[in-house]
TrEMBL record:
Cofactor(s) recorded in Swiss-Prot or TrEMBL: Mg(2+)
E.C. numbers: 5.3.1.5
Assigned keywords, A-Z: Carbohydrate metabolism, Cytoplasm, Isomerase, Magnesium, Metal-binding, Xylose metabolism
Superkingdom in the source lineage: Bacteria
Gene Ontology CC terms, in alphabetical order: cytoplasm
Name of the molecule in the record: Xylose isomerase
Active site residues of this protein: 101, 104
Gene (UniProt): xylA
Principal location listed in the UniProt entry: cytoplasm
Protein family: Belongs to the xylose isomerase family.
UniProt-listed NCBIfam families: PRK05474.1 (NF003998), xylose_isom_A (TIGR02630)
Subcellular location per the Swiss-Prot or TrEMBL entry: Cytoplasm
UniProt GO molecular function: magnesium ion binding; xylose isomerase activity
Organism: Yoonia sediminilitoris
Major enzyme class: isomerase
Length: 435
């Protein structure tokens, strides 16, 4: 039975680039073959439950602007209505996946026992809806940043009771994710960091965070969860410094605590920008270390200083992102989650559908451009030429040599290199041919 929230909005179909219908896909054709694989299977789109249904339209300077039938989100009846509306939207978009935090799908009860009971009830309810829907769970996670109990962190909290509450919360969310057949479980340390070093023991907090993540991996194997464990880098906001600052920081952390073979990364475009990087950089670095697991696809407003979580609309950026995803072999269990939200003035139900249409179309255009560049091979050819000097026996021998021996070779051979062009503008022009 329809909730009526999306009345008048049809199921969204692919109509092609020439269509002027705002409620149609213009580039995303799920069955189109790209590099021998269906587009839907490459992109593995997921709808973010929190931004699409739980977010009420507030920002740092103003409160709620969205008035939804499931507001206020404080009882089980409205939680189930919210789930009904969510699955209606999944069906309208034919979305393959969705993602959630526990606090998105169940109302806060103020105690762990209460939260566990409502989470389990909602897990069963969502499981029933999934049985009649084609939408699966890409990943689940725990919200350990919104409630006041998390104000000083979760696994890094100086209060051991908060650590215990966090451990129990993550166990419950892993159980729910496992029960719903989730392909991944994500840990996002929204407040795993500090406001000031004056009251922070860095060594203890990092050790506790490392042990906590090891317990997560141990529990994964205990229950037979086959999904990936992912951590999500984020540099700041709300903490002054967060321990999962960027991809490089996370890789160093995982290696320090012996987790590099067990945990991969869920990388968000907006977080990359906050860290002073490009999305392309973060993806390339994770892929080079074999730790690229999944992505959150959004964008930031480059004129704002916080994480604005807007839907993507920049095809060249998205194309370069998928270039590195495809180069690394593509997604296995990960996918493209729209950790993106409407603008607080976009009040209509139609806006929510249109935002996802636009995001899915941009990703489809980016994917096709990335695949075309890979099949053309121009960037790889340029890389091969640039590093060709390292293919000689003398060059390779330097990597197992010594400073003394290399210095003697420079003297003996009179080596005095001339700089060579990096051809950046030519390569940028090359990319622009495809986007």
């Amino acid at each position: 039975m329809s909730t009526g929230f999306f009345d008048g909005i049809p199921d969204i179909a692919y109509e092609g680039a020439d269509s002027t219908n705002p409620l149609a896909f213009h580039h995303y054709n799920p069955d189109e073959m790209v590099m021998g694989k269906r587009m839907e299977d490459h992109l593995r789109f997921a709808v973010a439950y929190w931004h699409s249904f739980a977010w009420e339209g507030g920002d740092p300077f103003g409160g709620q602007t969205f008035i939804r039938p499931w507001h206020p989100q404080d009882d089980m009846g409205r939680a189930k209505l919210k789930a009904d509306v969510a699955f209606e939207m999944f069906d309208i978009l034919n979305a393959p996946f969705f993602c959630w935090h526990d606090a998105d799908i169940r109302p806060e009860q103020g105690s762990f026992a209460g939260n566990l009971a409502t989470l389990n009830e909602m897990t069963d309810y969502i499981g029933e809806k999934m049985e009649s829907s084609g939408t699966k769970l890409l990943w689940g996670t725990a919200n350990m940043f919104s409630h006041r109990r998390w104000m000083s962190g979760a696994s890094t909290n100086p209060d051991p009771d908060v650590f215990a509450f966090a451990a129990a919360t993550v166990k419950s969310c892993m159980d729910a994710t496992h029960k719903l057949g989730g392909a991944n479980y994500v840990l996002w340390g929204g407040r795993e960091g500090y406001e000031t070093l004056l009251n922070t023991d860095l060594t203890q907090e990092l050790d506790h965070m490392g042990r906590f993540l090891n317990m997560v991996v141990e529990y994964k194997h205990k229950i037979g969860f086959k999904g990936q464990i992912l951590v999500e880098p984020k540099p700041q906001e709300p903490s002054k410094h967060q321990y999962d600052f960027d991809v490089a920081t996370c890789i160093g952390f995982l290696r320090k605590y012996g987790l590099e073979d067990e945990v991969k990364l869920n990388i968000e475009q907006g977080h990359a920008i906050l860290a002073g990087h490009s999305f392309e950089h973060e993806l390339a670095l994770a892929a080079s270390e074999g730790m690229l697991g999944s992505i959150d696809m959004n964008r930031n407003d480059y004129q704002s200083g916080w994480d604005t979580d807007q839907f993507p609309n920049n095809t060249p950026e998205v194309a370069l992102a998928y270039y590195h995803v495809l180069k690394s072999g593509g997604f296995t269990q990960g996918g493209t989650n729209f950790d993106a939200k409407l603008r607080r003035q976009s009040l209509a139900a139609e806006d929510l559908i249109a935002a996802h249409i636009g995001g899915m179309d941009i990703c489809a255009r980016g994917l096709k451009a990335a695949a075309a560049m890979i099949e053309d091979g121009g960037l790889e050819t340029a890389l091969t030429k640039r590093y060709a000097g390292w293919d000689t026996p003398a060059a390779r021998a330097m990597l197992t040599s010594s400073l003394d021996a290399i210095t003697q070779r420079v003297l003996d051979e009179g080596i005095n290199p001339e700089p060579r062009s990096g051809r950046q503008e030519i390569l940028e022009n090359y990319v622009n041919r495809f986007v």
